[in-house]
Amino acid sequence: MSLDALKSALPDYAEDLRRNVDSVIGDAELPAQQLWGTVLATAIAVRSPVLLRELGPLARANLSPQAYTAARSAAAEMAMTNVFHRTRHLLSDPGYGRLRAGLRTNVLGDPGVARVDYELWSFAVSAINACGLCLDSHERALRAAGVGREVVQEAFKIAAVVHAVGVTLEAEAVLGE
């Protein structure tokens, strides 16, 4: 599968999405590992089988086996921790924030790739999952590691476009007009 095939699967009313796929994925300035790890992790977070079938093989072709596994791991970990931390934040009782989380997150100690890459992927997934506490935490870690705002913004631009493409492709699979 190619990006051209993905874009051609989008309906005419989503022309802006086609252009955004070109700009945030096709013409991305991120290194390939950061780009494709972000694409894969966010595609998993979108939960669209159609999108995963299209982008999964592209990500596998552009990532080392370790990076491919680590991006999947970032999506899995954030699926858990984003719900947990978002819920603690949304509850009006601050006492939950003082309790021990008690969730295993061993992969965070050694994700198998550069810490910055894993943080970027976790950040992008947290954007899709709308966890403000996780977004702040991962953004602080990225900035402390010397990552510029432009790179951080690229990650959430990718998340936004991948999310929109996934939603649109799923709607077309059902409505198919």
From TrEMBL:
Disulfide bonds join 131-134. InterPro entries: AhpD, AhpD-like, AhpD_core, CMD-like. GO terms for molecular function: disulfide oxidoreductase activity; hydroperoxide reductase activity; peroxiredoxin activity. Keywords: Antioxidant, Disulfide bond, Oxidoreductase, Peroxidase, Redox-active center. One of its GO terms (biological process) is response to oxidative stress. The keyword Oxidoreductase applies. Residues 94-175 form the Carboxymuconolactone decarboxylase-like domain. The active site is at 131 (proton donor), 134 (cysteine sulfenic acid (-soh) intermediate). It catalyses: N(6)-[(R)-dihydrolipoyl]-L-lysyl-[lipoyl-carrier protein] + a hydroperoxide = N(6)-[(R)-lipoyl]-L-lysyl-[lipoyl-carrier protein] + an alcohol + H2O. Belongs to the AhpD family. Antioxidant protein with alkyl hydroperoxidase activity. Required for the reduction of the AhpC active site cysteine residues and for the regeneration of the AhpC enzyme activity. This is Alkyl hydroperoxide reductase AhpD. It comes from Streptomyces griseoruber. The gene is ahpD.
